[in-house]
Structure formats: structure tokens, C-alpha cells
Design goal:
Strand order of the largest sheet: 1-2
CATH superfamily: Winged helix-like DNA-binding domain superfamily/Winged helix DNA-binding domain
Strand content: 5-15%
Shape: globular
Number of helices: 4
CATH topology: Arc Repressor Mutant, subunit A
Number of domains: 1
CATH architecture: Orthogonal Bundle
Number of strands: 2
CATH class: Mainly Alpha
Order of helices and strands: HHHEEH
Structural class: mainly alpha
Low-confidence stretches: 1-8
Helix content: 40-55%
Radius of gyration: 12 Å
Largest sheet: 2 strands, antiparallel
Length: 78
């Protein structure tokens, strides 16, 4: 699914999209680069933002959604 299909997403929707794919689907950053028109730096920026703000934690090679991240998703996906 290309990010453009998420109605020319706002920034919080883009971040929520990445957060869900990393934590719920177990994907990695490289899996999402095509969805952002090949912009690796944009995806990397969002991953760093989500991790820095404690919306997710890395557990080995996987990302885990935190309580803070779960709350944030509830407020930014509707």
C-alpha cells in the first residue's frame, strides 16, 4: 500500500502507519521505503521520532508498541 493511498496523509497519520507496521506486522524500515516513494531518509526520520518519543521500544530485532504508543495511536488514527 503506498502512503499516497492514505489520503495524502498528514504527518501523524504517516507516523501511525509506520508505527503499526513495525510493531504489529513485524516489518522493518526497509519494507516501508517503497510506500514513501523510495524516500529512505523520511522513513528513518519517522522511526527515530517514534523511538525517541517512547512510542515503541526495540526488543532484539523486533519493535514493541509501548503504552504511550498505544495511547498516541488512539488519538491520531481516527
Amino acid at each position: 500500500m503506498q502512503i499516497d493511498s492514505i489520503d495524502k496523509s498528514t504527518s501523524p497519520k504517516r507516523a501511525a502507519y509506520i508505527l503499526r507496521r513495525l510493531t504489529e506486522k513485524g516489518e522493518n524500515m526497509e519494507d516501508m521505503i517503497p510506500d514513501f516513494n523510495g524516500d529512505k531518509e523520511l522513513v528513518k526520520m519517522w522511526v527515530l521520532f517514534l523511538h525517541h518519543n517512547h512510542f515503541m521500544n526495540q526488543q532484539g530485532e523486533r519493535w514493541q508498541l509501548t503504552d504511550k504508543g498505544r495511547f498516541w495511536l488512539q488519538n491520531h488514527e481516527a
